[in-house]
Structures are given as C-alpha cells and as structure tokens.
Fold this protein.
Amino acid sequence: MTQSDLDSTEYQLYLLKTMDPQPEILDRALTEIGFSKDQMEQEWERVKSVILMPSGSAGRTRDILRDVRTHQEQDGLVERYKFPLWPDYELEIEYHSAGDFFMRLWFVRAPGSRPPVGQPTPWTWLKDEVLAQYQDVKELTLWLPYETYDVLNPQDGKRYFLRFGWHVLQEIEEM
C-alpha cells in the first residue's frame, strides 16, 4: 500500500480513532461523516500501517494531507490542516528540520474561531483553554496523544479528571 492510496478522509478517521472520544461523541462524529465504527477501525489500520513505517512518516503524512493544508510557515517546518469534523480547529504539525519525523502534532484553534465560555465540554475546548480555568493542576498521564489531569475547580471547590486527545478535551468527570 502506498500513501497515494490514502487521503485526508482516512487520516481524519485515524485521528478520530486515536482521540478515543466518548461513545456518544464518536457515534455523532461517525454519523456526520458517513462512516461506521468498523470502517473507522479499518482505515485506522490502513493509515497506521503507512505512516508508522520505519523512517519517513512525516513525508508520508504530508503527502496524505496535502489537499487540506491551510497554512505553512518556518520554511515548511510547521503546517496546519483543516478537517470537516473539527471546524473550529486545525491540526498543527511541526516537522523536524530533517523532515523525517514530527516534533509536535496537535490541534490548535482555527483563525477566526473563538474559545467558548462557560463550563468546559468535550470537543469544544482545547487543553490550554481548559487548564487556564482550573487550579492545582496535576498531570496524571502524558502518553501522547493522550494527556490526563487532576484539577481543582475554584468555582465549586471540586476536583475533576480531564482527558485530552491531540489537545482536544475528550472527557471531564468529577472525582
């Protein structure tokens, strides 16, 4: 299989699978883009087999995503990509100067998109936006693309468990 067999639609399914969203969010997202869970699993396997090949995964990812690139800076070392499932975000990838691998890959707020106000909810908030609202932030897990935190909400005095996938809030639960 070559990267030319894949496109941004399959990569979007790969990102969705690796985010590990809550079941109701996953079902809604799959319905929105017209795919089943089985199709998502199959595409995740296909994309993973191409981009995780030894050396050059960054180049293969660039080829797959070329049709959804929205921004490029620093001589091509930082690029942003837009996907239908996340209209308020762009996937930002920082490539190593040798071009063979990633330095960083995460979602950032898209130009013109404003952070929401009120109580954080999954898929509407990014990591930095959420963590800025809490105190006594304790990192529990950092196993990219996942990050989990134990935080104190200064408004209600309660502790919450937060889970992020690619910097997008996936879960918030009172502890």
User: Anything to note?
Assistant: The chain has a mean pLDDT of 90. Strands lie at 69-73, 78-81, 89-95, 102-109, 135-143, 146-152, 159-165, 168-174. The first helix runs from residue 8 to 19.
